[in-house]
Fold this protein.
Amino acid sequence: MTVLVYGGSGSGKSAYAEQTACKLAGDGPLYYLATMRVYGAEGREKVKRHRRMRAGKGFRTLECGDGLTPVLRETGGTAVLLECLSNLTANLMFPGDAEEPKTAAAVAAEITEQVLLLAERAAHLVVVTNNVFEDGNVYDSGTMEYIRALSGVNRNLAERADIVVEIVAGIPVFLKGAGL
């Protein structure tokens, strides 16, 4: 089963995704795929908060900020929580000073392929993604390309997911499928 958890910053999507992954795992193995590259005090604090949220729930954390391919072998037949697509999209789109940013289409295709391979390997996959599309602002070209990439990944995965749920102020709103 694949569950796509969608929402704005601070909406409660991480807590909902963790609860869902734990429920799907039952007594089986449970992985947390962390995609965030940590920059500065704010990033370190966010990671600490998420670690506290996961404490005692049985998650084995794998860092995969550069893509999912290295972790595919380890996650076969397990419940997996992938957090989150917005970080992974940024990481792959803007790889560093030495490389040119990738196009939205290339990044969307790469991430979609990797997540679909992960979904095939894992018994259950819960994917967290962000809503960054509704503020109505027009940003610089790099940011707009990032928004196009993330929206492409979200559309691709929503089409293939069993359940798509938007978290609004901590309340799950099912867009596709039903709750567990």
Notes: The chain has one domain: 15-125+139-157. The mean pLDDT is 90. The longest strand covers residues 124-130.
